Task: inverse folding
């Protein structure tokens, strides 16, 4: 007969494995987790904001975003999808020529936490090679799609000379249609980061990973609202400035 103690120990072991798996999943996706390796989130500079944009370049909205940034004299960081950059070489070059920082956001936007190591390396290598060929500049930063990562994903990025970058301020801007709502929710994140003694590393989306031409008007307009809101109270920087100042 199986004893109750044996059953209890077995259930306890199963629970421990489940908890460990859950912890790994959390570490793989949670933006500020450092369990799988160090990433750049936001330094202790509560007066600074890094505007970062994912999933471009997008011919429908990235040009308008570049106009807004130029109007406010602000440089941002763009994490580009490689296959879109390859199709939009002129727009990609315009981002770089505007003085903005360009980062690697993989070739096809898979969840790299669930991607085979060889495929991860190919996604990153191919994207960096394409971006460097287009812009003539080295790619120094990498952001994993969805935030999904493992130790080997971060290692692959570093071997290509890139600093992995996450975030501490994000909303559902990809589905919210009201710019004011996006800006208000993001401002709450920015202010919370400041109260905690940290800079704000904002993620907005000027593109969409499902294809070129995605409507990102609400996100781009929300970016302008945030620029207007914090023009006098905060300093806007690129993530590269945080690395250079470290």
Result:
């Amino acid at each position: 007969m199986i004893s109750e103690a044996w059953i209890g120990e077995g259930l306890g072991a199963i629970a421990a494995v489940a908890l460990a798996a859950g912890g790994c999943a959390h570490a793989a996706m949670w933006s500020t987790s450092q369990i799988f390796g160090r990433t750049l989130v936001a330094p202790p500079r509560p007066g600074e904001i890094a505007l970062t944009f994912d999933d471009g370049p997008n011919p429908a909205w990235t040009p308008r975003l570049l106009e807004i940034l130029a109007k406010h004299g602000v440089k941002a960081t763009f994490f580009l999808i490689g296959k879109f950059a390859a199709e939009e070489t002129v727009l990609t070059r315009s981002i770089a020529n505007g003085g903005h920082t360009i980062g690697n956001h993989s070739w096809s936007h898979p969840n790299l936490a669930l991607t085979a190591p060889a495929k991860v390396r190919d996604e990153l290598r191919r994207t960096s090679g394409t971006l460097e060929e287009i812009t003539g500049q080295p790619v120094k930063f990498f952001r994993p799609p969805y935030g999904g990562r493992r130790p080997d994903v971060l290692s692959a990025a570093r071997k290509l000379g890139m600093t992995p970058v996450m975030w501490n301020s994000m909303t559902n801007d990809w589905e919210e249609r009201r710019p004011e709502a996006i800006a208000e929710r993001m401002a709450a994140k920015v202010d919370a980061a400041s109260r905690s003694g940290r800079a704000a590393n904002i993620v907005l989306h000027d593109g969409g990973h499902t294809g070129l031409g995605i409507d990102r008007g609400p996100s781009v307009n929300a970016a302008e609202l945030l620029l207007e809101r914090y023009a006098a109270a905060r300093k806007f920087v690129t993530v590269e400035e945080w690395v250079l100042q470290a």
Remarks:
- Residues 105 and 144 are 6 Å apart (CA to CA).
